[in-house]
Amino acid sequence: MSASEAVAAADTALADPTSARAWRRITLHWTVVVAVLFLLMLLAGLTMRAYQGGYVMGLGPEWFYALLTVHGLGMVGTWYVGAMAGVSYRLARFARPGLGVARFAYLGTAVGVVLLVLSTLLGRFGAGWYFLHPLPFHSGGMWPEWSIGVFFAALGVLGVTWTIWTLDLLRAVARRYSLGGALAWHVIRGKQGPDTPPFVLVATSTLISAIAAFVAAVIMLVLFVAEWLGGQFVNDALLMKNLVFFFGHGLVNITMYLGVALVYDLLPEFSSRKLSVNKLMAWAWNLAILLVLLVYFHHLYMDFMQPRFLQYLGQIGSYLIAIPAAVISIFSVLYVVYGARVRWTLAAMFLFFGVMGWAIGGVQAVIDSTISANFRFHNTLWVPAHFHTYYLLGVVMMVLGTLHHLAGEFAEAPENARLSKVITTLFLIGGYGFILMFALGGAHSVPRRFAAYPQDVAQGIGYARMALPFIAVLAGAVLLYLWDTGRRCAQAFRA
Amino acid sequence: MTPQVAAFYLYLTLAALIAVVFLVVAASTRRPREVSKRGANRLRAGFFVLLAVILFSALGLTLGRMPYDVWAGQIPDQVVYVTGKQFAFAVAGTPVETDEAWQEATMSPPVRVPAGSLVEFRVRSLDVNHGVAIYDPGGVLLGQIQAMPGYLSRLRMRFEQPGYYSMLCLEMCGYAHSSMRGVFIVEPRA
């Protein structure tokens, strides 16, 4: 029995030993999938940066863009499923998420990933991870028609799979707490109600926003396919851009918040100080449902035909969302740790420093969501600097920490304190160094998504080359992490 | 110092501050101590006030500086037509609305604008989304606007420094995206 199971209440998925064993196994399978995908996508990223540094010979730029597409979608997908896997297992302590749905999600994700790889690495589909309409239909002779269909099929499979998975978790939460109870409305009203854990409040708020994002994805996909299948129907480019960013921003934002839910849940377990839901926290996470969906306008600042008031809403919303994030969540994390007795396992370090990455990435986000700054920063390397901070040094650390902890819990494996410290240090040095090169690029006008840098922005070559040793350090940390977590998984599978 | 570099230093300073706070908090666990919830909440309230003041001040200072309707009441001194298509920007003194006109304009001598004049770029695309980013002779990005198929957008700018100005594409548009460019010349004032 794992530590999670020991505290699970009756009538939860972990209370029954058979069910608990099945949940352990599927979480282990997810851990292996996340690890393999992370390593492959990291290699794709390394290849891209090396390409930009002029070190990759014999590959045309269409391959750079195919790699870019698979790396972007691959990473976004990997960390969404990694976070969902962690959240599903930890939710099983409180409620009964569906094991059948969890297995379906695993299978559906595998099918979607295979289709994505076929489309990009075989078909050279290179429209980028947000496949901005109408670029998929204008390959310039680089990708065949079938690769467009396979790409849409990948999105369709992943979208349907993940929507069902998200709905199931909401169903499980609603059954145990009622939706209002999970969102702590009773706390807001000062009334009696269920003892809602902060993790459930954060996860529920986030999953509701996720459904909205997936609905937009379905609409957008139907419109894309309708145009692709022929006839006179042509989509409006501005509508399609709004839809893809409502969906895309929503997906990455909720992925970050699923990671934050894991922090709220796990970090206090390593500390002598705990967190509970109060009125402020309840208000913040209820407002977040809407705020998360409204800030996406900051992706369309340079589309001058977008209605003005939406541009204003984008900047105001993007600024305001920083307040609950910093004052409620980030401050609470610092409170849980400051002067407390903390067991600094790898999980605790990764969760804690993952929140630091969220905070630092947030500074860049506020700067870039200032329209007058975006006028100069939009689609330069400033943008990958920002989102790699949020991902690699934010939610990736939160998810990696969680999965390392769970694998250890299942295997009852001891912590190797020295190794954990080495992994964390190398990860932070490699990660922040790699991202610094993006930030310097953005500060010096280097565009993003350039396979090769022309003379006007030749400094981009130098920044790409300087990123490579940092990626090597990061890769070292990742390999050590995979070895340590892999050992735990192997032990847990045998248990 | 360009605005981009200034913003980078601001980011670096704030990032370093955040890192120091997190490292100090982590180090504090070496000497565990009691922390009153009341004290923590007072600190939280202070942090909220500070953050709100900073963010609302920044909103006030920056919301009025948008690139959309600058010099709205004035008639531009010169209109320059920019049309994007895979993989070049046609920059011309007359509208470019067909593939043939685009082909011809990409081969023509660069448009010239006088330094200090108010230039209005009328931007369109003939195929996919492109990003028209204007770089000064020193390679600094001065500003940008998206070219979206089916729409006409307008960007107004003034250029003080004479020389060759490049346009690079900042919205990924296909395999030759990074070689896409346009050019115009800013002439010294007469």
How would you describe this structure in keywords?
heterodimer; A: 495 residues; mainly alpha; Cytochrome C Oxidase, Chain A; B: 190 residues; Immunoglobulin-like; 2 domains; 31% strand
Summary, kept brief:
With 495 residues, chain A is an all-alpha fold.
CATH evolutionary superfamily of chain A? Cytochrome c oxidase-like, subunit I domain
Gross CATH architecture of chain A: Up-down Bundle
Quaternary class = heterodimer
Overall, the morphology of chain B is: elongated
| Low-confidence runs of chain B | none
Q: Report how far the terminal alpha carbons of chain A are from each other.
A: 10 Å
Termini gap of chain B: 29 Å
Write down how many β-strands of chain B occur, each being a DSSP E stretch of 2 or more residues. Answer: 9
Overall residue-averaged pLDDT value of chain B: 96
> What is the tally of beta strands of chain A?
0
CATH topology of the largest domain in chain B, by name, is: Immunoglobulin-like
CATH fold description of chain A: Cytochrome C Oxidase, Chain A
Q: Number of helical runs of chain A? A: 17
Q: Please tell me how large the radius of gyration of chain A is.
A: 22 Å
- State mean pLDDT of chain A (0 to 100 scale): 95
Order of helices and strands of chain B: HHEEHEEEEEEE
Round the Cα radius of gyration of chain B to an integer and report it: 24 Å
The structural domain count of chain B equals 2
The CATH fourth-level homologous superfamily of the largest domain in chain B: Cupredoxins -  blue copper proteins
What is the highest CATH level, the class of the largest domain in chain B?
Mainly Beta
How would you describe what is shown here?
The complex is a heterodimer of chains A (495) and B (190). Chain A has a single domain (3-494), classed as Up-down Bundle (Cytochrome C Oxidase, Chain A), CATH 1.20.210.10. With 495 residues, chain A is an all-alpha fold. Chain A is built from 17 helices and no strands. Chain B is an alpha+beta fold. Chain B folds into two domains: 3-62, no CATH class; 78-187, Sandwich (Immunoglobulin-like). In chain B, the strands form two sheets. Chain B has a five-stranded mixed beta sheet, with no helix packed on it. In chain B, strands 2-1-4-7 form a four-stranded mixed beta sheet. Chain B is elongated. Chain B starts with a helix and ends with a strand. The model of chain B has no long low-confidence stretch (mean pLDDT 96). Classes of the chains: A mainly alpha (495), B alpha+beta (190). Chains A and B meet through helix 3, helix 9, helix 11, helix 12 and helix 13 of A and helix 1, helix 2, strand 5, strand 6 and strand 7 of B.
